[in-house]
């Protein structure tokens, strides 16, 4: 063999090895679970400018609105197909008295929002505004009741006010006087929030007793489907909390267990949202990957007490958390959103899909102007973040049949640390279209991936890509479209195999016909 031929062979072989490093195998024969669309849920708290200035501008005539709700925001969220929206908190929920925020606005009781900056909360946005808005969005409301600072009776009255069909109590009379005769039939009810922390610093045993009491007293009414009661789960790897709630709550009282996980570098040094090093990026990715272990371990505990998986695991707060933007109120949690956040979103959604036998709802924190938002507003202006685009690209998976995937991935290496570089998930929708979502978290290396389709017959592949020159890039009010999905040309189909060339730090969604 001449030197030239062996050199060429070596190049070919190294190319082959590169291709062989990343492999994704789809197994349609094992598909049995549906990706619940509620995995694409959102979370809106009375915090900073999420509600006021974000969703709601009240009487402001210069910003087009419907009864105070911004029309630009409504339109953008409808395109996302938001299936469920959690409200009014968060920690705020455990200070919230819903009766302060109904009826004529001039008579509503202002309170101090002592959790988030001590600002005046005039209660202009209350139960009616929120539930009407959910109807316009086509989203199911998810209400969090005040267990920390409220009473069982308040929670019982709230259920009756929003769900009771006819006028057999003063609460339904009141609802009618306030302009709403038919009930909203709210299904999802969170009983407390982070009760191990801002919701009362309770022990797991104490919380369980409280939960049992609330869950018993909060009755459903004849013409509703029945309440879906969600208990507080852990926000750290405290599996003892999960064990206590699952083992000590009667099965018929609990429908969901909520967990929270934020991708934070370090709670006392969170770092800038836009000006970050590769080391900080790596740490964020490592925290995002931690979701996989957190869900696996919580599911294992739940399986012991609920092997039929009747109780849903609900990730009702997730996302990246950094320092606030310079000059903004530290209590308002306003942060920009870069390609790093797009990576968190794509990776987390893939993890949720692959756990959809147990994970049946997730709520990104938070929809507008707070933490990993999908929308940022500045007076009359509005921008869509990279996270918005990932959630829009991925929403083809809503209510589709999850196709199990086996991923063999190369490592993303930084110094002496490594992470799995490629993550994937797949589904088949009711029209027979197969979608595959791929994320490459490696900051500098592109990935060649072989995807084996097994029994799936496909004749054409198209795709959409989210990528930018730098992982620190973001959309701003002066450059609104710097990051947006573009058509992806890096996939080719040959026989039962797909070959994909995935750029560094990118998200791709493929569609097979
Ligand atoms: O999303 C911000 C806060 O984070 C929520 O209010 C609380 O539940 C969590 O600690």
Give a written overview of the molecule.
- Residues 5-20 have low confidence and may be disordered.
- The protein has ten helices and 27 strands.
- Strand 18 and strand 19 (417-420) form a beta hairpin.
- It has helices spanning 3-21, 71-80, 127-137, 152-163, 170-177, 204-217, 239-248, 278-305, 339-354, 386-394, and strands at 23-26, 41-43, 65-66, 69-70, 84-87, 111-113, 119-121, 140-145, 188-191, 228-232, 256-263, 312-320, 359-365, 375-378, 381-384, 401-403, 405-408, 411-414, 417-420, 422-428, 434-440, 447-452, 461-466, 486-487, 491-494, 497-502, 506-512.
- Helix 8 packs parallel to helix 9.
- By secondary structure, the chain is of the alpha/beta class.
- It has two domains: 17-30 and 404-512, Immunoglobulin-like; 37-398, Glycosidases (TIM Barrel).
- Alpha-L-arabinofuranose binds at residues 45, 89-91, 193-194, 317, 365-366, 371.
Key attributes of the depicted protein:
globular, eight-stranded parallel beta barrel, TIM Barrel, binds alpha-L-arabinofuranose, six-stranded antiparallel β-sheet, alpha/beta, 10 helices, single chain, 2 domains, 513 residues, Immunoglobulin-like
């Amino acid at each position: 063999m001449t030197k030239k031929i062996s050199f060429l062979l070596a190049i070919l072989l190294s190319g082959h090895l590169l291709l062989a490093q990343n492999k994704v195998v789809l197994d349609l024969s094992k598909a049995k679970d549906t990706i619940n669309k509620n995995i694409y849920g959102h979370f809106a708290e009375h915090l900073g400018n999420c509600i006021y200035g974000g969703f709601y501008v009240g009487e402001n005539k210069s910003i087009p609105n419907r009864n105070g709700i911004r029309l630009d925001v409504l339109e953008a969220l409808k395109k996302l197909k938001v299936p469920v929206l959690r409200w009014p908190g968060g920690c705020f929920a455990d200070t919230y008295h819903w009766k302060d925020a109904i009826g004529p606005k001039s008579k509503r009781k202002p309170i101090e929002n002592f959790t988030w900056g001590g600002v005046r909360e005039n209660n202009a946005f209350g139960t009616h505004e929120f539930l009407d808005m959910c109807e316009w969005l086509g989203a199911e409301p998810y209400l969090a009741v005040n267990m920390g600072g409220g009473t069982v009776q308040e929670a019982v009255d709230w259920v009756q006010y929003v769900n009771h069909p006819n006028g057999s109590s003063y609460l339904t009379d009141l609802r009618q006087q306030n302009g709403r005769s038919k009930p909203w039939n709210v299904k999802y009810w969170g009983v407390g929030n982070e009760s191990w922390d801002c919701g009362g610093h309770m022990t797991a045993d104490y919380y369980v007793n409280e939960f049992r009491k609330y869950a018993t007293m909060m009755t459903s009414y004849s013409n509703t489907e029945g309440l879906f009661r969600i208990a507080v789960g852990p926000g750290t790897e405290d599996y003892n909390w999960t064990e206590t709630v699952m083992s000590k709550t009667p099965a018929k009282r609990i429908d969901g267990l909520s967990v929270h996980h934020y991708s934070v570098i370090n709670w006392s040094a969170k770092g800038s949202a836009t000006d970050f090093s590769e080391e900080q990026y790596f740490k964020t990715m490592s925290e995002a990957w931690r979701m996989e272990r957190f869900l696996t371990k919580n599911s294992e505990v739940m399986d012991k007490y609920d092997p039929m998986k009747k109780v849903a695991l609900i990730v009702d707060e997730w996302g990246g958390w950094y320092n606030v933007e310079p000059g903004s109120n530290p209590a308002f949690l306003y942060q920009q959103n870069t390609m790093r956040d797009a990576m968190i979103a794509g990776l987390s959604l893939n993890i949720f899909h692959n756990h959809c036998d147990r994970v049946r709802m997730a709520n990104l924190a938070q929809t507008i102007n707070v933490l990993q938002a999908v929308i940022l507003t500045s007076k009359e202006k509005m921008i869509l973040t990279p996270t918005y685009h990932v959630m829009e690209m991925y929403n083809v998976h809503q209510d589709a049949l999850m196709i199990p995937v086996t991923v063999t991935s190369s490592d993303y290496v930084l110094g002496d640390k490594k992470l799995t570089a490629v993550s994937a998930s797949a589904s088949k929708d009711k029209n027979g279209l197969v979608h595959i979502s791929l994320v490459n978290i490696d900051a500098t290396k592109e990935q060649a991936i072989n995807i084996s389709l097994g029994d799936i017959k496909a004749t054409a592949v198209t795709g959409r890509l989210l990528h930018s020159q730098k992982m620190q890039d973001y959309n701003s009010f002066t450059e609104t479209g710097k990051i947006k999905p573009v058509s992806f040309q890096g996939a080719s189909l040959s026989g039962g195999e797909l070959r994909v060339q995935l750029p560094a730090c990118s998200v791709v969604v493929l569609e097979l016909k």
